[in-house]
Design a protein that fits this description.
heterodimer; A: alpha/beta; Hypothetical protein af1432; four-stranded mixed sheet; 4 strands; globular; B: alpha+beta; 14 helices; 8 strands; elongated
């Protein structure tokens, strides 16, 4: 006689079949989530485009792009920096895993909206204003906690924003328990992505869409001292063709392709802009644990430029590994 | 790669030195114009340093605001590098030889002598540099010490409960988490070497936890306080005014919303005690603040008495050097309806500003000179109450 109440054994399904069904259900759920997040991301992009488009007149036409194109490039760079962090195990060291889809969505949303604060004028720090705008957009981020995570990242993207917490250094904020490991990681990715939008593309046009040569001609043609102050900033950015992260044998690398012509004519202005970008990197969880590769069609010139501007490259770049490679394209 | 600029000197600066810095850069520019590169970084944007401070101000308001100002730098390749870093309050001068170094430092000293501080930037400087100093007193465990690497002195921390009102809620939350993790088993707090819980420390900790929105350790701390209440309804702690100890505890229990109805009469009695006799200006200011928080009105007679006492101790006189009596006077004057437009209030504010240390903090006493985070918070709270930043 069998066990009371059980007349017949339950037919056992092959384990493989159950596993496959489970996998397929999981894949389906992921696909649904991916679709949902993609559609929300599209909405976030179009809304931030509207805000930045409406706000572009708030930005001085003599300064570089702080608008829509910059935001789009930062979104792209955020993805690339995240990939580099994954490749060199920084993400894993920090979180013990990779970011999931929702975390990526939050980071991308923050990247997209990091500068929307300019729409409010300059009464407060622009990053703090960006937070306020994001906090007011329950239509884009209905979940309060998600909204606060995204707006928190927008504040931390800039040193000035995180200074409102007490320090502009993300590592220090994490060490003192003001940020979680995940927040520190995401804020670092966003800050580096923003800092690496430092190249020529940043000064191809101003925020209003006016081409660089016209802006420079206008500034040069004026006797206005204020306008003239902006000139070095255009020159400085023009010295960097592009900047990107890479995997330097398991260590984070930052490659900056430099324009030899600019190094000859405005070397120190380029050095200041490069140093600012590197000091932004230094203020993240990366610290000085990275390599910077200055790539240039004239490698000897780049080396000499770096040597003669040692005064500019200060404490914040001390300890990093510096390399020079030849550009052939 | 080693720099050739081997000779260097650092001076402490504040945001209020902004006009002086621009003036210094103007002089440097006039002397070494040809190859000099300058850089002013604000709100993630780097531009050249203009020669005039008014133009620099215009640029800053176009690009961001003074809270977003990072640094100004000038570089003459192979000769010198000057960096006025407003983030850490340091003016770094690095040169190839001592002759240039002396010349640049001479220019700076001359500028300081000739040009006044930027008074319009005081408000931003006080809040930004004050926050920076207070953050430097927060350690990795979340302990907010009185000074960097110093001790936690909860008995002196009454005004920390107001940190959220002066843009420091994150530091308050962090310290509240630390307090939660370091509560004594009897429900109280104290960080003195013997760690025996004290009444005033516990009441101050409770006020901070409530301000930070924490609730978990509150029942045990309430039990600790209530169990030590004397038969007359008051609390007593050696070496502290009974009126202050009782009023701080009463307020903390009232704010925890778990009090019995016998608490309010305490504050009425304390108001009568205050009317009769001063407990010392610092204690008086705390009691006044507590009465206000508990919505117990200060009647005209009490206000008149408090103001007369301030005059009798000549608190508004320049010879009073200590910071804490000045803070207390501001709290009392505010409670008595005085505003920043009042000449006496102005004098106190001016004197407090004179006593600010270069690190952005205020010393607890004139003898010690070193800044105290608790005194700094209290000063900023008192200034904020007088609508100084508004």
């Amino acid at each position: 006689m069998g066990t009371p109440g059980i007349s017949q054994p339950i037919p056992s399904r092959p384990v493989e079949e159950i596993k496959a069904k489970f996998k397929s259900a999981l894949e389906e759920a992921r696909e649904t989530e991916r679709y949902e997040l993609q559609s929300r991301m599209n909405k976030v992009k179009s809304e931030s485009e509207k805000i930045l488009e409406d706000a572009k007149e708030n930005v001085d036409p003599n300064i570089n792009d702080h608008g829509l194109k910059h935001a789009q490039r930062v979104v792209d760079k955020t993805e690339k920096v995240e990939t580099s962090f994954n490749d060199v195990s920084l993400t894993n060291q920090q979180m013990g895993r990779f970011q999931d889809q929702r975390e990526k969505f939050e980071l991308q949303s923050a990247a997209c909206m990091h500068d929307v604060g300019i729409a409010q004028g300059m009464k407060e720090e622009h990053a703090v204003q960006s937070r306020k705008i994001i906090d007011s957009r329950a239509d884009l981020f209905p979940d309060v906690q998600e909204r606060e995570r995204i707006s928190g990242l927008a504040v931390l993207h800039s040193k000035e924003g995180s200074r409102s917490l007490g320090s502009d250094n993300i590592s220090e904020l994490e060490r003192k328990g003001m940020l979680s490991k995940k927040e520190a990681l995401q804020a670092s990715i966003l800050r580096i992505a923003d800092a690496l939008d430092v190249g020529k593309s940043r000064v191809e046009r101003n925020t209003q869409g006016e081409p660089a040569h016209k802006v420079i001609d206008r500034i040069q043609g004026t006797q206005n001292e204020k306008a003239k102050s902006y000139l070095t900033h255009w020159r400085g950015h023009q010295g960097i063709i592009n900047a990107e992260t890479y995997n330097d044998n398991g260590r984070l690398g930052i490659r900056m392709k430099l324009d030899p012509e600019s190094l000859r004519s405005h070397g120190s202005s380029v050095a200041f802009v490069v140093n600012d970008a590197l000091s932004d990197v230094h203020s993240t969880i990366v610290g000085s644990n990275y390599t910077v590769d200055f790539k240039c069609a004239d490698k000897t010139l780049a080396r000499e430029w770096y040597r003669s501007n040692q005064g500019v490259f200060g404490e914040e770049t001390r300890g990093i590994r510096v390399e020079f490679t030849q550009a052939y394209d | 790669m080693e720099s050739d600029l081997k000779f260097e000197k650092t001076e402490q600066i504040s945001l209020v030195d902004f006009d002086r810095i621009i003036n210094l850069f103007g002089k440097v520019n006039d002397k070494w114009n040809e190859k000099l590169a300058t850089h002013l970084r604000i709100s993630n944007t780097g531009i050249g340093v203009p020669k005039s401070a008014s133009i620099a101000r215009e640029i800053i308001s176009d690009v961001g605001n003074f809270r977003e100002l990072d640094y100004a730098a000038a570089y003459l390749p192979d000769s010198f590098y000057i960096k006025a870093d407003f983030r850490n309050g340091k003016l770094l001068v690095r040169c190839r030889d001592s002759v240039i170094l002396d010349s640049l430092l001479g220019m700076w000293q001359e500028t300081v002598k000739d040009i006044d501080i930027s008074r319009d930037l005081l408000k931003v400087a006080i809040s930004v540099e004050g926050l920076r100093f207070i953050f430097s007193c927060l350690d990795n465990e979340g302990r907010l010490s009185e000074m960097p690497d110093g001790e936690v002195k909860l008995e002196r921390s009454y005004f920390l409960q107001y940190m959220s009102a002066v843009r420091m809620s994150n530091i308050l939350s962090r310290f509240a988490s630390y307090l939660k993790e370091n509560q004594n088993s009897d429900g109280g707090w104290n960080f003195s070497p013997d760690r025996r819980s004290s009444l005033l420390s516990t009441a101050n900790a409770l006020l901070m936890l409530i301000s930070a929105g924490e609730t978990d350790p509150i029942p045990s701390s309430i039990r600790f306080l209530i169990s030590r209440r004397e038969a007359n309804g008051f609390w007593n702690q050696t070496s502290h005014s009974k009126a202050v100890v009782t009023s701080v505890i009463t307020l903390s229990l009232m704010k925890s919303e778990k009090h019995d109805e016998n608490l309010e009469p305490n504050l009425s009695k304390i108001r009568d005690i205050l009317l009769e006799q001063s407990q010392g200006i610092e204690n008086d200011s705390m009691i006044v603040d507590i009465l206000q928080q508990a919505r117990i009105s200060l009647d005209d007679q009490l206000k008149k008495t408090l103001l007369e006492r301030l005059i009798s101790v000549e608190i508004q006189h320049e010879s009073i050097p200590a910071v804490e009596p000045l803070i207390s006077a501001l709290i009392i004057l505010h409670a008595c309806g005085k505003s920043k437009l009042d000449p006496g209030v102005r004098k106190i504010i001016d004197r407090l500003i004179e006593l600010r240390n270069p690190d952005g903090g205020w010393p607890s006493s004139i003898e010690k000179k070193t800044s105290s985070s608790y005194t700094t918070v209290a000063t900023i709270v008192a200034l904020n109450r007088m609508n100084y930043f508004g």
